[in-house]
Amino acid sequence: MTKYYNFKTEINKRELQEAATFLKEGKLVIFPTETVYGIGANAFNPKAVDDIFIAKGRANDNPLIVHIADFDDLKEITEEPNEMEQALIDAFMPGPFTLILKKKNCIPDNVSAGLDTVGIRMPEDKIAHELIKAAKLPIAAPSANLSSRPSGTKVSDIVDEFDGKVSAIIDGGETKIGIESTVVKVIDGIPTILRPGKITPEDIKEVVGTVKIDEHIFKKATGKVESPGMKYKHYAPNAACLLVYSDNEEVQIDLVNQNMKDNTIVIGFKEHQSKIQCDQFYVHGSIHNYDEISHNIFTLLREVDRMHPDFIIIEGVKKEGLGIAIMNRLIRSTSYHYIEK
Length: 341
Ligand code: TXA
Ligand code: MG
Prior knowledge:
With 341 residues, the protein is an alpha/beta fold. The chain contains eleven helices and 16 strands. Strand 2 and strand 3 (38-42) form a beta hairpin. Magnesium ion binds at residues 142-143, 151. Residues 142-143, 151 line the site of magnesium ion (MG).
């Protein structure tokens, strides 16, 4: 049976302790972070970690991120960061940022999927922070969604996927950012973004002077990749989807109208609603507010899917700043069906 805790307005200390005890006992707990919900287990317990892979239906060659509450935890589980890694830690932790570091042996192989590295994240969300502190353990936690589905940004979206499979679900309301953390690995002295997020390439460049974006961010990964997650279908609704983008707004609107079919839902900018002829239009946000779009996009993909359209057309954004992360998720959610003009 799954216990539900409502921490939307405040954290209930007794229930927080109960959730922490579940984690200590090797059970699974779903909790909010500032990015998306996570499905967590004691990172030192390989059996509990296995249960995460089973609950999500996740491929076991796709490693998990380990969540910590403070910097002492970091020393326990990873080799000492080099100067550049330390600068990134100082700048972006706690926050929506994951750094890949050399792992120590106390992190079981199934957490890192056999790699000698592990992704470390220190959430700034209060509930996540308090839970990890109360458990006194590093918590392995991928996003709380069945494998290939959009990540969970509110509890009502993921209840059906996990009810009965986890010991507790903590409801902290809608997650603030709405897309997962920026994943970075320093490779040959250059911080390389393996998954874009709220911490942008510009943010990283400002701190350490250089940055690289992995070539697979916008294209299908074949062969060897730096981050196993790049290979898998992700964020996808059940209906066929098309993503369109143009720097020219009128061209973008034309692209939507030209590709319209029967029973199509459009997900687009509020400024375009009156210019697009379709049965159902869902607003992902304003052209001028990429934070709003990032916050809404996963829950919208799920909502639209529940309407069982035959086709979904999504308006894309400019690939700069947070727009890089939004387009990475949208390109993948549409299974690379993407037109740019
Ligand atoms: O915001 C987030 O990062 C959320 C919340 C819950 O913290 N977590 C999350 O975890 O998105 P997950 O497992 O859904 O995505 C982790 C990504 C995957 O693409 C995985 O392949 C990559 O990080 N990753 C994990 N460990 C890695 C490693 N050692 N080397 C390269 N990539 C790694
Ligand atoms: Mg995920």
